[in-house]
Amino acid sequence: MRVHYLSHVPFEQLGAMEAWFQERDISIRHSLLFADGALPTPADFDVLVIMGGPMGADDDLQFPWMSTEKALIRDSIAAGKKVLGICLGAQLIARVLGAPVTPSSEKEIGWFPVYPTPAGKSDSIGKLFAEAPAVLHWHGDTFAIPDGAVHLLESEGCRNQAFRYGDNVLALQFHLELEASNAADLCDACSDDLAPGRWVEDREALLGDPQRFVTTRALLGRVLNAFLA
Q: Labelling 214: which of 182, 196, 206, 208 has CA 20 to 30 A away?
C-alpha cells in the first residue's frame, strides 16, 4: 500500500498515523504545499490523506495551490482511491463533493465527545464511537454533508463531525492523529484561537492529560483498520 499525504502548514503532519503506517511497512510520501511541493497524480498512491490547516476551504485566491489540490481530490475520488480528510482536509472533500463550508456559530477547540448519528450506529466506522469518546477538536468552520454521503458523527458543539462517501472516502472534522507534541505545536502556532468560548478549552486543558492522547491513538488505529481494510 502507498500513502501520500498533503500538508498545508508545518505544524499539521501525520502525527500518530506515521507510526501506524510504518509498523505495517506502508510506503509514505508527501506534498508540502506550504513549501510549493509538487502534487502527485492518483496513479502515484493508493491512499490520499489530506491534513488540516488554519486556512478556509474556499481560500483559492489566497493559496494558489488549493484549486489544483481540489482537482487532485476530485480525481482521486473518481479513481476509487481511498481518500481520508482531517479537519481542513475533510472540509476540502466536502467542497469537492459540492457541499458548502461555512463558519461555525462557535469555535470548537478542546476535548469534547462525539456521538454516532442514527446512520453512524450501523456503520463500521461510526460504531467505533458508540461510547461517545472525547476527541480533540480545533476548528472554526464546518462542512455540510454532501449529497450521497452518510453522516456518521456529531457533537454538541458542531453537528457535522464525520461523513463517509461510498467505501473509499472518509472525512473527519476532529483530530485523532495528534500526539501531545503535535497539539503543543498547534497551541503555539494558533494561540489566538484560544480566546474563551463555550466550546473552547485553554492550553492546560488541551495538553494536561497525556492519557487522552494514548486513548485516541488506539481509536485512530481502529478507524484506520476499518477504513483501509
A: 196
Q: Are strands 82-86 and 47-50 parallel, antiparallel or unpaired?
A: parallel
CA-nearest of 172, 174, 175 to 152 is: 172
16-23 and 210-228 are packed helices; what angle lies between their axes, rounded to 10 degrees? 50
pTM: 0.97
**Continuous H helices in the chain:** 16-23, 65-78, 88-96, 180-189, 203-207, 210-228
- Indicate left, alpha or beta for 36 from its phi (over 0: left) and psi (-120 to 50: alpha): left
**Would you call 180 exposed, middle or buried from its count of C-beta atoms within 10 A (0-12, 13-18, 19+)?**
middle
CB contact burial 42-81 (16+ within 10 A = b; e otherwise): beebebbbbbbbbbbbbebeeeebbeebbebbbebbeeeb
* CA separation for the pair 129, 170 (Å, rounded): 15
Sequential pLDDT tens for the chain (229 residues): 999 999 999 999 999 999 999 999 999 999 999 999 999 999 999 999 999 999 999 999 999 999 999 999 999 999 999 999 999 999 999 999 999 999 999 999 999 999 999 999 999 999 999 999 999 999 999 999 999 999 999 999 999 999 999 999 999 999 999 999 999 999 999 999 999 999 999 999 999 999 999 999 999 999 999 999 8
CA angle in degrees (0–180, nearest 5) for 186-192-197? 100
C-alpha Rg value of the chain to the nearest Å: 16
- Which candidate, 52, 56, 154, 158, places its Cα nearest to that of 107? 158
